């Protein structure tokens, strides 16, 4: 009986189809656990301007669009043209196109030229570049904004003391340096959550 009165948006058949498509095509998307944390943050923070670094097929973008206010805007960056095209179709499928501003290209070339301050920044891009991405993003963050970074434990290897495969050592080392940067950062307070593949939530300290 309860389902007749209250159906969760995340149970939408279209969203489930996108999840299946991502799995079948080996496209990484945020886990449901991470999605629900983002949902809670969006409801609590009520951001007006959101920056997403790493659109992929627009799955997390859909969560941002659905759980932010009608006046909110999402600026999302993606450097893979095929993924961006799929993301645009997915956003249009849910009729969120008026809330989403797609930008095609490398984040390192786009972020420095963004002129506005963002209330909510989500980083889910090249794992070996999180430190550099965060340093750029923090310059674009509003006073009370938050920066969320996904997959910071990188397949569990960041905390794994066993030998890491050679091709992954640089990424793991870079991610470890990034987490040290957050831990020692006197300007940001960061919480690390051992959920999914690791999530950090950073906000400015009141200095």
Explain briefly what this protein structure is.
The chain is an alpha/beta fold and 207 residues long.
Question: Which key features would you list for this structure?
Answer:
single chain, alpha/beta, Rossmann fold, seven-stranded mixed β-sheet
What does this entry look like structurally?
- The protein has 207 residues and is α/β, with parallel strands linked by helices.
- It has one domain: Vaccinia Virus protein VP39 (Rossmann fold), CATH 3.40.50.150.
- Helices cover 40% and strands 21% of the residues.
- It contains eight helices and seven strands.
- The chain has a seven-stranded mixed sheet with strand order 3-2-1-4-5-7-6, sandwiched between helices.
- The radius of gyration is 17 Å and the shape is globular.
Structural class: alpha/beta
- The domain tally reads 1
Q: Which stretches are poorly predicted, pLDDT < 50 over at least 5 residues?
A: none
The ordered H/E elements are: HHHEHEHEHEHEHEE
The main pleated sheet reads as: 7 strands, mixed
In terms of DSSP E residues, the strand content is: 15-25%
Identify the CATH class. Alpha Beta
CATH superfamily: Vaccinia Virus protein VP39
Classify the fold: give the CATH topology: Rossmann fold
Give the radius of gyration.
Answer: 17 Å
- How many helix segments? 8
Query: Helical residue percent?
Result: 40-55%
């Amino acid at each position: 009986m309860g389902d007749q009165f209250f159906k969760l948006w995340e149970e939408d058949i279209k969203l489930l189809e996108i999840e299946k498509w991502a799995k079948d095509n080996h496209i990484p998307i945020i886990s449901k656990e991470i999605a629900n944390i983002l949902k809670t943050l969006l409801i609590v923070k009520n951001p007006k301007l959101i920056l997403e670094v790493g659109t992929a097929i627009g799955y997390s973008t859909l969560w941002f669009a659905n759980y932010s206010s009608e006046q909110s805007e999402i600026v999302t960056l993606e450097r893979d043209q095929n993924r961006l095209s799929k993301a645009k179709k997915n956003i249009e499928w849910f009729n969120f196109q008026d809330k989403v501003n797609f930008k095609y290209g490398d984040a390192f070339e786009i972020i420095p030229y963004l002129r506005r301050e963002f209330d909510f920044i989500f980083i889910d891009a090249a794992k070996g570049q999180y430190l550099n991405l965060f340093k750029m993003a923090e310059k674009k963050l509003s006073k009370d904004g938050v920066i969320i970074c996904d997959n910071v434990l990188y397949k569990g290897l960041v905390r794994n003391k066993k030998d890491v495969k050679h091709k992954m050592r640089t990424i793991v080392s870079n991610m470890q340096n990034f987490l040290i940067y957050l831990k020692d950062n006197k300007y940001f307070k960061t919480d690390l959550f051992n959920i999914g593949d690791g999530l950090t939530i950073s906000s400015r300290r009141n200095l």
